[in-house]
Amino acid sequence: MTKLDNKNLDITQKIGQVVMPRIDFNDPESLVTARRLVEECAVGGFIIFNGTRDIVSKTTQELQEISKIPLLFGCDAERGLGQVVSDMTIFPFTMSLGAANNLDLVYNQSSFIAQEMRECGLNLIFAPIADVNSNPDNPIINIRSYGDEPGLVSRLCSAFIKGCQDNGILACAKHFPGHGRTGVDSHVDLPVQDTSLETLQCSDLIPFEKSIEAGVATIMTAHIAFPQIRDGNAVTISKGLVSDVLRDEMGFQGLVITDSLHMEGIIKLGDEQYLSQMALNAGCDIILDPRDPFTLIQNLCNTELDLCQLNQKVERIFSAKQKLIANTNSSDSNLKDRGIKLRKQIAIDSVCQIKGEALTSKKVCVFVLDVTDSEIVISKPFTDYLEQNAISLNKISISTGSDQNFITDDIPEDSAVISLVYTTIGAWKKQSYLPDNFKEILKKLESVSHGTALVSFGSPYITRDFNKFKSIICSFDILDVCQVAAADVLLGKLPAKGKLPVDIS
Q1: 398-422 burial, b if ≥16 CB within 10 A, otherwise e?
Q2: How many domains would you assign to the chain?
Q3: Which of 205, 239, 243, 438 pairs with 413 at a CA distance of 20 to 30 A?
């Protein structure tokens, strides 16, 4: 890559560099818009949503060819590129790595993700999650975090960053200064935290400090307000937190990127031009995912901006682009197989057995409580595996919306009872909580006289109120490999290697 120089850029091109719109491959107009944004506005890059490997690779290559300035292509691939690109690899939720607590495993995972990203022409990953999940009722971080202990989160974040950046992908620690205390999904509303800077410094900020020491290229701001800290503004538009704390006090010299401007947590504070101007003045370098990028760039061009600050932002963007490895299309014929093995290893190494012993009964009643509203038969990997191991079972699926008054007396005396609970985390989803009827049913099931087991796939916090189950097992994802690994632990075929990385007492 030749040396980048912003001296010959006009004001539109400079402002274009600090804007990163989306490309959504589910939107047929998105690619046309992207070409125009490159040619007319010199945008600095794009955040990618959806698509397949072939179309993403073709698009990134085409846009790089028509852009006079190298582009950043970012994505939310904290669980692997398969989270964004349909035919690529997806791994169990991040808390699985916290339970396994193996730095090599984290490094290998992020190295693999980086290699798949490079095959698609992508060069910026919005990960790792540096949030310390201190709130068990957190609806949006939760199992996306490594855990609730700052030291553990710090070590694993550093390993993730190294794996990415050793393989030519810029990493991004998020969500500064920490989203782990919130009880509100910032996609839905603005969380307001009555937390002091001193409290953050003793916990939430530690993984960001260690990420900076590890050389992380970028940091993403959280759409959260901290009224007690400096100017009290939402972080994304807070000079006190971005410029004063992150830049001056913590010494971060890399790129600061806002979280998405599509999120209700920030939208409610003002229009896009106001928010972007405030974010840039606060110290952010890149405005991520604006809803109307053309209008935003035009309006910012007609706004009185500090040209010295704007030039510094473009210089930081160019510096980050300069670090990228030029070869973004490397190929590894064994990459897919390595991903399959790595995903299985993470699943096996992360299963936690909170209490209990192996299942001895060859006859079971399986109750399926699915909070995810999945369109598939979600428990099939688990129940099929039991049947393959000569377990005779009767399966009862419980609906979230129905009042299920089943008779526990009808459970045969020679049957064990297995309760499978499926939860997940995702923007706007609210699928990490147990509905009331699920809680009532689990209370009944944990009290039957038979052998009982509670197996949680997703948030481990749902097990807190059900300690009468004779066996409790936690995995952190609904993926097939996670269900089979948990079944192996329940059957006594594998030891539970994981250690719960959060407090559920």
Answers
A1: beeeeeeeeeeeebeeebbbbbbbb
A2: 2
A3: 438
